[in-house]
């Protein structure tokens, strides 16, 4: 083996003592987690928005965004429930590029995973305690879940991870909702097999121990589009795609048939302005078909302070990974969703 040890074994219990929520913040989080679960179960009919930067690369920019989002949440809470994307690990198919806060707490600096772990906890902690919002992250590394699961309220399993058995099994033991994306091929059977696995009890090795999970009934579908064989993006948020996903839920008899539309990635072709149009079309499809209205009740939106993206962290609040909607367009879109539901 060619592994070289670069640091000490991580003491998970010690890490969890860092940036711990106090009694007041924990109570706020618990209330919001209960509301989120009720939305996933269909008991609360509000629209769920999982929204925020593609990657949380700058603590102060993320906090500025969170404060604006929290104020807007208060205005639209009658019809819209917001969980903020605080994504701290980014998948890289060839290993190159920015891999997230956990790898590089300084986006312009060298990797430092021990400092990154602390930075990840501190960022989630600050968003919760300073704004009252709860947060979402991506479960890129299943073995790292225990480092943040007391702070995070929503976990997503990405398109390149959803076929992995460890991701599916760990998702079955989460106490938070687990959004399972369709793979980049667009194969819905893969995604629904992942949801089935996550919703059921599993026994497996985790962190060098045999464990058993109880199953996660809040595991659900995220439609994020696909990459066609010719390299072009292929959306899967249109009317017929939504009905196909609903039928798959019914065929497998899965619990809590909740569908979230990812408005960026291969649904938009990473044309970030298209996210607005995709939301509008989906809202109209909900109006047109009762089944869609009952099941399609969430959007995942990539949004930051400034429009677009940049290669280096030069402009405050502008993405260094996928392009995002800027704040002004984000605010307009959320108000538009609210107004549509108010009718």
UniProtKB/TrEMBL annotation:
<dbReference type="GO" id="GO:0005737">
    <property type="term" value="C:cytoplasm"/>
</dbReference>
<keyword id="KW-0028">Amino-acid biosynthesis</keyword>
<comment type="similarity">
    <text>Belongs to the class-I DAHP synthase family.</text>
</comment>
<protein>
    <recommendedName>
        <fullName>Phospho-2-dehydro-3-deoxyheptonate aldolase</fullName>
        <ecNumber>2.5.1.54</ecNumber>
    </recommendedName>
</protein>
<dbReference type="GO" id="GO:0008652">
    <property type="term" value="P:amino acid biosynthetic process"/>
</dbReference>
<dbReference type="InterPro" id="IPR013785">
    <property type="entry name" value="Aldolase_TIM"/>
</dbReference>
<dbReference type="GO" id="GO:0009423">
    <property type="term" value="P:chorismate biosynthetic process"/>
</dbReference>
<comment type="function">
    <text>Stereospecific condensation of phosphoenolpyruvate (PEP) and D-erythrose-4-phosphate (E4P) giving rise to 3-deoxy-D-arabino-heptulosonate-7-phosphate (DAHP).</text>
</comment>
<dbReference type="InterPro" id="IPR006219">
    <property type="entry name" value="DAHP_synth_1"/>
</dbReference>
<keyword id="KW-0057">Aromatic amino acid biosynthesis</keyword>
<dbReference type="GO" id="GO:0009073">
    <property type="term" value="P:aromatic amino acid family biosynthetic process"/>
</dbReference>
<feature type="domain" description="DAHP synthetase I/KDSA">
    <location>
        <begin position="35"/>
        <end position="333"/>
    </location>
</feature>
<comment type="pathway">
    <text>Metabolic intermediate biosynthesis; chorismate biosynthesis; chorismate from D-erythrose 4-phosphate and phosphoenolpyruvate: step 1/7.</text>
</comment>
<dbReference type="GO" id="GO:0003849">
    <property type="term" value="F:3-deoxy-7-phosphoheptulonate synthase activity"/>
</dbReference>
<dbReference type="InterPro" id="IPR006218">
    <property type="entry name" value="DAHP1/KDSA"/>
</dbReference>
<keyword id="KW-0808">Transferase</keyword>
<dbReference type="Pfam" id="PF00793">
    <property type="entry name" value="DAHP_synth_1"/>
</dbReference>
